[in-house]
Amino acid sequence: MKISKLVMRKTTIALLCSCAFMAQAAQSESEIKDESYALGASVGKYISSKIYDQTELGVDVQVQTVIDGVIDALKNETKMSDEQILTHLNARAELLNNIREQQLAEQSAQSLAAGQAYLADNKSQSGATETASGLQYEVIKQGDGRIPLASDVVTVHYKGELIDGTVFDNSRDRDEPNRFALMTVIEGWQEGIQLMPEGSIYRLSIPTELAYGERQVGVIPPNSTLVFDVELMKVESPGENSHGMGLSGMGMGGMMGTGH
Questions:
Q1: Interval 92-134: pLDDT, tens
Q2: CA–CA distance from 181 to each of 17, 147, 186, 197 (Å)?
Q3: Same-domain check for residues 158 and 75
Q4: Is residue 63 located within the same domain as residue 175?
Q5: How many CA atoms lie less than 13 Å away from 228 in the CB half-sphere?
Q6: What is the Cα–Cα distance from 119 to 125, expressed in whole angstroms?
């Protein structure tokens, strides 16, 4: 006896639906309760993070009123129209943006002043040299190898710090040196590394105009003076060993891109 394809398809669909129903039925009351709680907790954590972000900026949030709004929305009984909700959210977003911009401007001015004071003091220290651009460097170890050109590819280990000693990146923590075309990094690195013979370790104190300028990059505040201990491990000409070039997975302090 032949069975039509249509009958076979219907039978297959029926079996799949039956299996899905049995799988759902197999869930215990406890499992359903736990999964439902997890759903609510995930939403709660998201809302909590939003409240925290706003209170950190000094903006008041009535937590109980937030909870009331969530409950009303779940019941489809909100006391505001969608248009009213959007209007109030936009007003709050504008307030938060204005506060962030003001705080960023204050932080930028403080960083600039602190960096200028640091550089003024640092250049008077024994062993410190300042170039015409304002870059300062100290020789920790002087190598005797090849000095790179701007067009070369270099391999380095480095540690990057803010002037208060906060470490924002350290290639040795990743146990992986960084390899990159010198022309791709910030100006302070381009200039400083071209002073170093292969095998050297220098400390570079880089003013903001040779780093990221007014941009905030990760944990680096705008207008920051940056301090790097850099070990120049290898210098290669463009195209040399190009089959393995590829930029290493540079951390945020890897200084890819210019500051302007």
A1: 999 999 999 999 999 999 999 999 999 999 999 989 999 999 9
A2: 59, 14, 11, 16
A3: no
A4: no
A5: 28
A6: 10
Instruction: Collapse the DSSP code of 152 into the 3-class scheme (helix H, G, I; strand E, B; otherwise coil) and give the result.
Output: coil
Q: Which of 49, 64, 79 is the last residue of a domain?
A: 79
Alpha carbon separation from 16 to 51, 72, 90, 160 (Å, rounded): 44, 38, 47, 58
Q: How would you classify residue 132: left for phi > 0, otherwise alpha for psi between -120 and 50, otherwise beta?
A: alpha
Here the CATH number for the domain that contains residue 144 is 3.10.50.40
- Say if residue 73 is in the same domain as residue 131: no
215: in domain: yes
- Residue position matching structure tokens 């200084």: 255
Q: Tell me if residue 184 falls in helix, strand or coil.
A: helix
The pLDDT tens digits of the residues spanning 36-80 come to 999 999 999 999 999 999 999 999 999 999 999 999 999 999 999
Range of the domain at 44: 31-79
Strands (E), the chain: 128-130, 136-141, 153-162, 167-170, 178-181, 201-206, 226-236
Residues with a catalytic annotation lie at: 158, 168-169, 186, 212, 228
Count of domains in the chain?
A: 2
